[in-house]
Amino acid sequence: MTGPISIGAGPSGSEPHSANDRHVPVLGNRLALVDKLRGLMIVLMILDHVREYLHEQALLFQPTDVGRTTALLFATRWVTHLCAPTFVLLAGVAVGLQKANGRTSLRRYLVTRGLWLILLELSVIAFALDFAAPFLFLQVIWAIGFGMLLLAVLIHLPHRWVLAIGAVIVAGYPLLAPFAPEPGTGGAIAWTLLFQPGPLPWLNGFVAYPALPWFGIMALGFGMAPVFLAPAMERARTLVCIGLGMLALFLLLRGSNGYGDFQPWAVQAEAWRTALSFLNVSKYPPSLDFVLATLGCSLLFAPFVARLTGRLGRMLDAFGRASLFTYIVHIYATHGLALVIGLALGFPPQLFLGFLSDPQPLVDAGWGLGLFWIYLCWLAVCVTLYPLAAWFAVLKSRRREWWLRYL
């Protein structure tokens, strides 16, 4: 997930939606579409992490295991697939908008921002995930940070060139699989960091998000920045068309059961499980089918998300404008909630400390809540975090201290 990279000077978080906004300087306002879409991804990510920490089956099998899952559990997990690729895409879009806005020293900012995100992943976030000595679990913040370092090299290229580079990476990096180095070698470490998820040799850690395929998605976002600069109606039509095109290509590739994903779908004993098998695309690392399906959905519905008003619209806007802050706080809140509920139910507290490297004691103790309670806890966390996110978003809009740009 990306942090709140400012794409304009406007403090309100709003944008014009009328047909006359062609003459309004869009870069003088934060784009409501970007903020609210990013906020929606925060809400979905909270659902995913609440499920991972509190669900009774989270440590027993993957919720996308077609042979063992239920339709609701599969849907609960699949919808959260939208989070990471959308966050990474919007990180690239935000950088592209800053370039269009003529931001000075953008390359230096990307380098310092990227290094800062990697440091956060290895320290503050690592502790939040495990409540113990850092288990180096390299996830989306690491991938975005590394992607910013790579994007700093390409920052002066035309948007369409970076878009082409991103498309080539997303569609073509699986072709490098035959060149994987032997395990245990120095090259294998670089391969794990860049291409293929896996444990980190000699370290207590795991790479869940290899950097290169996720950078491909960020490059797509940078290349798409001009779309977000168009007038609202034109932008909405373009995003809907791109989203539909991605979904159509996904259906074509997935239907052919050939190139596009690392695991083919198969006919199951029950029709609904066959449908789940078809939708069960690979995230680790992200396959072409995964990118097309998830980003296709996000871009298709983005214009509708931008128009949300009322309490829900305000919540999404606040989460989106304070996304990195909310991301960090929600991990502590979710893990802390699991610890508090566990203590209330009589589970020893040490079971919830340092369990990432060895979750078996939690499994043996019979930890976990039913799916109904997962949704209830998700809503509770969202409602609790909203005032904090809103406060921090206002703080960032009113204050100009340099360090606020990094939170």
UniProtKB/TrEMBL annotation:
The keyword Transmembrane helix applies. Residues 1-21 are annotated as: Disordered. Residues 1-14 have a biased composition (Low complexity). Keywords: Membrane, Transmembrane, Transmembrane helix. Pfam families: HGSNAT_cat (PF07786). Residues 30-233 form the Heparan-alpha-glucosaminide N-acetyltransferase catalytic domain. The chain crosses the membrane at residues 78-97, 109-129, 135-154, 161-180, 200-229, 236-253, 290-310, 322-347, 367-395. InterPro entries: HGSNAT_cat (IPR012429). The keyword Transmembrane applies. PANTHER family: HEPARAN-ALPHA-GLUCOSAMINIDE N-ACETYLTRANSFERASE CATALYTIC DOMAIN-CONTAINING PROTEIN (PTHR40407:SF1), MEMBRANE PROTEIN-LIKE PROTEIN (PTHR40407). This is Heparan-alpha-glucosaminide N-acetyltransferase catalytic domain-containing protein.
